[in-house]
Design a protein that fits this description.
262 residues, 2 domains, two-stranded antiparallel sheet, 8 helices
């Protein structure tokens, strides 16, 4: 009760009370934003396993009016004790609705709830790019070969990211989403490519990393101490805003290694 207003407005009408109260309603801005985000997810989702979950969520979510959501919409939101629990969901909705790109560096936006496996994304991007490199190059993803069999139990296989075949040439590629320390690959990565080269009878193998420019190659040793002819190429790829430029860089590099002349 607002006593000042009660005395001012209702001193004659004592049967009335001048009060202030909160109205709890499902129709408010936070729900408008979340509903719009769920509808967006329903349109862009490509994972069959999520179709049912998104549909069930929409079924239980009250139908909201269509609203225009801009950056100003999020700037006007003020969180309090009752709306603080919405904050993480609203921040993810902001990333989706405004088409922001999550960045794991320190910044004002909380994006840890929206994570991507960059190893998988980098592998898929390289695969897609190389499939457009040349019509005669056969690009096979995730080719498995048996590697080890215990006395009791299941066998273990090895599976590089990509196997390229051009005429009589076989080349094995593996993508790594990580920084090259001192421009040198790890011993584990080199051992992995050595094994791939032997099992897939490929003289050339290549490790593809993001973030740097330039390339070089190295040779493996035979057990007798002599240098072999098995090559492991180190292919750093500069990641920039122009996706077409990244793809062309990859394609041209692989064409050169496979001695393809357009």
């Amino acid at each position: 009760m607002l006593f000042g207003k009660q005395i001012q407005q209702n001193i004659v009408h004592q049967e009335r009370f001048y009060v202030r109260h909160a109205t709890y309603d499902v129709f408010h801005t936070l729900h408008f934003i979340l509903y719009k985000t769920i509808k967006l997810l329903q349109k862009i989702n490509t994972n069959p396993n999520l179709h049912g979950r998104i549909g069930a969520l929409l079924l239980h979510f009250p139908e909201m009016p269509e609203v225009k959501v801009t950056s100003a919409t999020f700037e006007r939101i003020v969180y309090n004790r009752k709306t603080q629990s919405y904050k993480k969901a609203i921040e993810i909705a902001k990333l989706l609705l405004l088409q922001y790109h999550p960045d794991l560096t320190k910044g004002p936006n909380h994006v840890l709830a929206l994570m991507f496996d960059m190893n998988v994304l980098w592998e898929k991007f390289v695969l897609h790019s190389l499939r457009k490199a040349h019509g005669l190059v056969k690009v096979q993803p995730q080719v498995s070969k048996n590697f080890w069999k215990p006395i009791n139990g299941n066998k273990v296989s090895i599976r590089p990211d990509m196997v390229l075949r051009y005429k009589d040439t076989v080349m094995v590629l593996d993508t790594k989403w990580k920084n090259l320390a001192n421009y040198k690959p790890s011993v584990e990565d080199l051992r992995q490519m050595f094994t791939y080269g032997h099992y897939f009878e490929a003289r050339d193998t290549a490790l593809i990393y993001p973030g740097l420019t330039g390339q070089y190659q190295g040779l493996y040793y035979h057990p007798n101490g002599e240098v072999s002819d098995q090559v492991c190429h180190i292919l750093p790829v500069k990641v920039e805003n122009n996706v077409n430029a990244i793809e062309k860089n990859l394609q041209d590099t692989i064409k050169t290694l496979l001695n393809i002349n357009d």
